[in-house]
Amino acid sequence: KILILDFGSQYTQLIARAVREANVYCEIIPYHKSFEFEPGLKGIILSGSPFSVNDENAPDVDIQAFIQKVPVLGVCYGAQLTAKKFGGKVEKSNKREYGRAYIQRTKEDVLFEGMSANSQVWMSHADSIKELPAGFELLAVTESIPVAAFKKISSQETLYAVQFHPEVYHSIEGKKLIRNFLVDICGCAQDWTPAHFITDTVEALKKQIGNKKVIMALSGGVDSTVAATLIHKAIGDNLYGIFVDNGVLRKGEFEQVLKTYKDNLHLNVKGIDAKSKFYGELAGKTDPEEKRKVIGRLFIEVFQEEATKITGIEMLGQGTIYPDVIESISVHGPSVTIKSHHNVGGLPEKMHMGLVEPLRYLFKDEVRRVGRELGIPDELLDRHPFPGPGLAIRILGEITEEKVKLLQEADHRYISGLKEHNLYKTVWQAGAILLPVKSVGVMGDERTYEYTVALRAVTSVDGMTADWAHLPYDFLAHISSDIINNVRGINRVVYDISSKPPATIEWE
Ligand code: XMP
């Protein structure tokens, strides 16, 4: 395995994903956390950072101690820290270097194996390395900086450093460089594959769980489905899945997903129709955060009630993934809560049970790869994200069963249309929103006074930032008439052209 020491860069997770993409397992830990040099540890990568190495409290690690045990690669701040600690000079640049640059190699090295002569890389730094320490050699420069890559001259220790960010998309051959470091320099076997992961995880789950019974909430989402399938592979029907119809799912979703769980994946899962309970308590609630709280609380109630019906439940399964658990270095202080995202995160504290989290160390794309290997149908794996509170936060204002039906129908036509026109996979998330606005229209000779639906579709990588999807006008025209002609109660369709920030993806 590879350890990535995080100095707080926004790109640290990208380093981890690039390493995993090379089929090598890695973990991210805060730079100041101690760790063991276990036999499986093959190398260390030092991340970038918003700090300057010349700051008073600049993050620091004992690189000399590391390289006595394993090869080290410093990236950006990691490179500057290396230069400074071994006696080189790092100073503020006259001009900050951001964006595209082309490296010119000054010496051939295995680190660059297979890369083109003027490889495009991505820079993002305010300080520059002005002088290399004694005992180091220069490997590459760019037009604007004298040190873009270097290494320690030594037959015993291996220490590489690059000023650019090989982990980002715009460093075109960055993945090759990372692969060279992992495989040729650290000697990693590229055996972190979905098939291996499944075999190892199923073995580990058998040991962890033994004969105990596990209960788990299923949502139809990618993470809970893949996690449940893995646990089921390990313990069979000792896994008790619970799938709750909270009344704010998509049209037909409850029945379809339940059928896939049972018929395709052979899971032991119970569907609970709790619609009326949810509608009852949502009645009269208009505040988005209040709606979220009600749904979160009711969900836990329903789930707990089901749990007490099964004797001898001792463990709780969850689809937690790696980005939820990485300890991050907080440089800007605690972040502000914009929306309180409901998921089943409230469950473990309430239930006092042992946790089973087979996806705890996977990134989202790896969860999908594992899911494919497990034979989970594409329509489940490629689903857009769908919020826990479902359509409740897409019906602005008060929720009624009638409004849910209206929105379900409009949403269904929109999403099916995206699929039919091969647009579904080109957007990151899409959905319809029912506005609390009625407007006048005319149909035939009749005047109508009905609701407005807004369509939303965004492109994004992680949901943190997003742009509105530039869907073809022809498609929008088609969906607009499809909805207005077929969904009674809606006489106007608008398209949301706001990016995030400053808007959010959901309207509530
Ligand atoms: P926003 O609206 O914050 O959404 O731009 C970002 C992503 O989070 C989802 N989202 C939620 N997911 N519970 C969830 O499980 C919530 O309360 C919630 N609110 C927003 C949203 O669908 C998008 O994918």
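^ xanthosine-5'-monophosphate complex. Confidence is low (pLDDT under 50) at residues 332-337. The pocket of xanthosine-5'-monophosphate is lined by residues 292, 339, 341-343, 385, 387-389, 429, 463, 500, 504-506 (CB under 6 Å).
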